[in-house]
Amino acid sequence: MLCISLTACSLASSGNEQESEEDVPASSQKESEQNDADKEGQSSSPEETEQTPADEEKDTASEKTEKDKVLDDGTVEVGEPESLQVVVNKRRKLPEDYTPEDLTVPNVPFYFTEDHPKKQLRKEAARALEKLFDAAEQDGIDLVAASGYRSYDRQKRIYERNVEVYGKEETDTFSAQPGTSEHQTGLAMDVTSAQVAFKLEQSFGETNEGEWLADHAHEHGFIIRYREGAKEITGYMYEPWHLRYVGKDISTDVHEQAVTLEEFFGLYPSDE
Ligand SMILES: [Zn+2]
C-alpha cells in the first residue's frame, strides 16, 4: 500500500518557497489515520439527495445548484463560481477561466515574506481571516498563513508536473486536477504554526493552534473543510490546516451539525 498524504492543498515546506515543492506526497502520514474513514455517520444531513437536486424545490441545495452544468464525463461545472457558498470538489469543477475579481492580500502573518499570488483571498474572506487571526492572538494562539488563492493555470502546472514525476494514478491521490482545487475560489487558506515547523500535516490538528481553529474558526465564517474521517465524502483526507470561508451563518450550522459541506448542501457523494 502506498503511504502518502491525500491533500487538496499545497504541501508547504518551511523556508524555500518554490512551486516545485507543492502538491508532493507527504512522508509523514500515518496509515492509521485512514481508519477514521469509517466513523462518519449519515446523520444530520439536511438533504440526502445524492446528486444535484431537482430544481422545483425552493431549498438551499437546489438554489445553489440549478445553474450547474453537467459535462460529458459526468462531472459538473459549477454555475456560480463566485458564490461564497460554492462547493468545489473532484466532481464539481470551477470553470477554467474563473478568476475571482476581488482578490486582496489579508493583513496576517505569512511564513514567507516575498510577494506571491497565493497570499490572496477574496475580500470578504480576507477581512474575516484578519478577525480570526486577531481573535487567535488574543487567546495566545500564533497562527501563520501559508497558502490561499491558486489560479487554474498554476494548479494545472503543478498537476501536470506531478503526473510526469509520479504518474497519473498516484498523482490523483494527492494533487487536485485543475479546476477542482478549492484554492481557485479565493475562499480557502491553509494555515499552520511554528509548532509544526510551518508544515501542512495532520499533526497540526493536535497542536494548540489546530485545536483552537477547530473550536473557533466558525465564529468568523470559516470551516475546517476536510474533516477527519470524511474522505469518502470530500475526496480528501483530514486537513486540519485548510480553512474555507463560507460566511458566518453557514459556518456555524456546519460546525454545529458536524458535517461536511457536501452533506450540508446535499451533494454527497463527492468522489468518483
Ligand atoms: Zn488547502
From TrEMBL:
One Gene Ontology biological process: proteolysis
- Output the InterPro entries linked to this UniProt entry: DD-CPase-like, VanY-like_core_dom, VanY/YodJ_core_dom, Zn_M74/Hedgehog-like
Which UniProt keywords are present, listed alphabetically? Carboxypeptidase, Hydrolase, Protease
Q: Which GO terms label this protein's molecular function in UniProt?
A: carboxypeptidase activity
CDD domains for this protein: LD-carboxypeptidase (cd14852)
This protein's source sits in the domain of life called: Bacteria
Q: Which residues form the D-alanyl-D-alanine carboxypeptidase-like core domain?
A: 119-248
Spell out the Acidic residues composition-biased ranges.
Answer: 47-58
Q: Where is the composition biased (Basic and acidic residues)?
A: 30-41, 59-72
Where is the stretch described as Disordered? 1-83
Q: Where is the composition biased (Polar residues)?
A: 7-17
Protein known as = D-alanyl-D-alanine carboxypeptidase
Protein source organism: Halobacillus aidingensis
